[in-house]
Specification:
Structural class: mainly beta
Strand content: over 45%
Keywords: Cell outer membrane, Membrane, Receptor
Distance between the termini: 24 Å
Subcellular location: Cell outer membrane
Helix content: under 10%
InterPro entries: Beta-barrel_TonB_sf
Strand order of the largest sheet: 1-4-5-8
Organism: Vibrio xiamenensis
Largest sheet: 4 strands, antiparallel
Number of domains: 1
Shape: elongated
Protein name: TonB dependent receptor
């Protein structure tokens, strides 16, 4: 079981520090649980638990955004 919390402060996307190209700060939380049984490993995870709106970079006509909440399950069998 684990939780990762990442804080990223606000930043400007250009060298002139233009207010309209400033990206906001955000906190991203990921959580996971792993269960082991015999030869099986089961991993359940939630990335971006709070579904935070994440913008990494923006320009006058586009933006690079982060992944929305993602929920997943992995099952692995070892021979």
């Amino acid at each position: 079981m684990g939780v990762d919390v990442t804080y990223v402060g606000s930043a400007y996307s250009d060298l002139d520090n233009s207010a309209d190209l400033k990206v906001d700060d955000y906190i991203k939380t990921d959580a996971r649980v792993q269960y082991l049984y015999a030869d099986f490993t089961v991993d359940f995870y939630i990335n971006n638990l709070t579904n935070e709106d994440i913008v990494y970079f923006k320009s006058s006509d586009s933006a690079y955004v982060g992944q929305t909440r993602t929920i997943g399950l992995n099952v692995t069998y070892s021979l």
